[in-house]
Amino acid sequence: MPVTDVQQDLDNRTLTITADFDAPVERIWQVYADPRQLEKVWGPPTYPATVIDHALTVGGRVTYFMTGPDGDKFAGYWQVTTVDEPRGFSFDDGFADEDFNPNPAMPVSKNVFTFAEHDGGTRATYVSTYESAEALQQVLDMGVVEGASASINQIDDLIAA
């Protein structure tokens, strides 16, 4: 399992997940840069993603929906804020309606994904910061740690293929 550490910090409103992969930084970058690869790992196995728009550029937008086991769909978006290919990127991640308009009733997280060489492979650090401790607690209660960990753990199978 690639996920090696999960830290929740309500005081600083952050969730940090660390994962180690047996692949070079450039290969892990490609998982996020290619929408078809991203679909295989963005969302837990029981809620696979379908990427609709994918512009991994500063100011770009990524839109997607996850489909649950009963066919229910949950839409989301990324608003890309920085790109440092292949070392990482940052984005605002939010829930959306079926037309990919932000859902103001749900939390938005500011995310920084970094990829660094580590022990002959890549250490990925995923940091999500929320507007409030309550917003972080809301997504924790929704199972974000389990869902994100299951999603990230799918990367091993993808890079091995």
UniProtKB/TrEMBL annotation:
Q: Where is the Activator of Hsp90 ATPase homologue 1/2-like C-terminal domain?
A: 22-159
Q: Which family does it belong to?
A: Belongs to the AHA1 family.
Return the protein name.
SRPBCC domain-containing protein
User: Which species is listed as the source?
Assistant: Rhodococcus kronopolitis
